[in-house]
Amino acid sequence: MSTSIGVWIAAFLTLGIMSFLYKDNPIYKFCEAVFVGVSAGYWFVVEFFNVFLPKVYDNVGIAVNVLLVQGRVDWFHWSYLLGGILGVLMLLRLVPKIGWISRWPLAVVVGTTAGLWLINYLVSNAMRQIQSTIIPLYVAGDLNATIGSIILVVGTFCGLIYFFFSKEHKGAFGGAAKIGIWFIMITFGASFGYTVMSRMSLLIARMDFLVGTWLGLIR
Amino acid sequence: MKKIKSILFSFFLLLFLFNLSFPQESSDPRPPTEIKAFDTPNDNGHAITVIWKLSADDGKVKNNVVAYEILRSDSPEGEFEIRGMVPVGENLFEDKGAKEKKDKNYFPSHKNFYYKVRAKADKTFSESEVSKPAFAYGQWYHTGKTTVLAGVIVFSVFALAFINLAKKGKELYIRPLAGIEAVDEAIGRATEMGKPILYILGLGSAEMIATIASFTILSRVAKKTAEYQTPILVPCYDAVVMAVAQETVRAAYLEAGRPDFYKEENIFFVTSMQFAYVAGVNGIMLREKPATNFYLGKFYAESLILAETGSVAGSIQISGTDEIAQIPFFIAATDYTLIGEELYAASAYLGKEPVLLGTLKAQDWGKAVVIISLILGALAASFGFQFFLNLFRVQL
Amino acid sequence: MRKTLPFALVTGVGFFMLVQYFIPREEFEIVYEWSLDWIIVIGCFAMLLGLWSLTMASVHKVQRKTPGWGYSIITLAGLFFMLFVGLYPGQASLVRGSIFMLLFEYIYIPIQATMFSLLAFYIASAAYRAFRARTVLATILLLSAVIIMLRLIPLGPLSAINQWLANFILTVPNMAAKRAFWIGVGLGATATALKIMLGIERTYMGRD
Question: What's the whole-number mean pLDDT along residues A53-77?
Fold first, then answer.
């Protein structure tokens, strides 16, 4: 059995969370409350040291230093002050009378990413996938590859038919859409099956901690 | 015996002297020729490309070239430094560096550089002539991305055309989606039971497309809950998402004519750590016992925990995400699932506004273009024609 | 100004980001990098909003003595204690062995790992529920899942057939459907982004 107080605390919290499988209870509620509070505090501290200090504080500090010592404007480092100002404007949400100003940094965030996502999704999700699917249907001397190519193209075609919104799934169109959803279900099943083993290994790791590290019954 | 030894000794001595007098013929490899240096196209102006004609001794047994070294200087007579090496058979090298002056590997733009190429054999080498001066500069347009530009223009034209058509009053048909049709029923159920609705925007940040699509649906759902006076709880993973969700719900209540019913404390932040968020939301589900749960947005491994807990709590559940790995779990554990693109289309379904229907039509036309390109492309590729493949090729 | 400036910002900034993709020049690259950093910085400041929301929600529960208010005190205690040990001046909080990291290691990590491990149970119940559905689609999903799950397990004479089937499923139909899915998502996301940039999609900005 472990003599480390940290391990005992970890074991208590582990069992507390696992008790949720039976039903909601005060021990689980306690563990949940601790988890939410500790995680929020941890995440804030990490963001403070890894984002705020290097990106805003240090960069603006360099800009101020260059201005005072060398007498020139270092636009590159001063630009981070603009990010800081936008961040402060975000906090004005807490003041009801001028809370509408917080829409400006929001607009910058949404606008920036809309422009980026438009290109990213069009290129990586649409164009690259199309490029990968344009393959020869007939591969000379390789029957397996030929059948595989035909199924791949037919599957992609039927899958796209399934996602068509402008036409009802009836007749031949409906038939193709049905084949499409079968292909999609095969994919989902494959995803499901793929994930099962990894989830089991997580449970094994926890059991290993309880039975091995905490109770010391296995080495 | 003594005589044999002396004969052998003389023989080897003569052999040694012979080699000293007539050493093995070794000469420098023939130099590379036609060296050209020019600005690397489609870049940010911190790279120069050097090409040359291979040495005549490239791939030969005698004086075989083993590698090429590329040297650079600020002036044709100045000191040359080695910038890189390429193996035998290659005749292209890109000399590039960082754009920041403080970087050790800084490569200045708009500065003339001179190059020469050294063909290296085993123990010897020879150098080409010095190239004409070349300087790096950034281009105003990346020619390799022309297909992307064409795609953006074509798609935008489709979208604007259909939006225009829809605004003129033309009826645009869209097929029914089970998950969308269940939304009204789900909200009605919550109202009848006097229980709140739980709306989860997922673990994405505010700028993710799935989250933005979810905001649109939240707006519609919030408007209905305002009309029915059903409480809606929105626990948020991201603080910016929380800010946007508060704005969205408040605007929806205003539109429904019930601004007094809006409670900002119902749209709150939990934490930004994945499983801590799930633990918090699980607690809400089991204690508040919402009648209806919506899971719409970006989800990861926690999707199954949320859906299963909601199922245990007896809620009707409608889910939707564009994360393909999580959809099977939503299908298994929730009542209705919006798969991928259906999540983005949901706003058009719920609002039925002409402009939204117009963009949905544009998506369908985009898919039609893709289907035709796929079929023609696959057939063409089967006969060796690469036209369609090149059409969709993107250079980064 | 209150209504038009945010949308003008969205459109302006959005089109700039779209255009900069096609212009390789250094100046555009720098503004692109600044923009990404600004988003991270804005998110960093927004954390304070999040913490304020969490604190106020917990404080209200305590003030009103709503059922379970005691747990809100625990949440607040956990939050403020982490902030205190993490931000205390002179502390190297993020260094292994510090009080801050010990709390992370013995409280956060075990709970997170346990929550993650609960998925093993939930995945079994989800599979059972899917099997009970008895529809053609649910059957296809489960069959495919079983074939993939069993591909690494020795099944005697059936191993070779199962592995061939699993390989075929992963390389052909799985890839086909994924491509259709991604193409659909790609076009849908492009349309949504376009709607935002053109100001058609406005719900995220709220209303006065």
Answer: 89
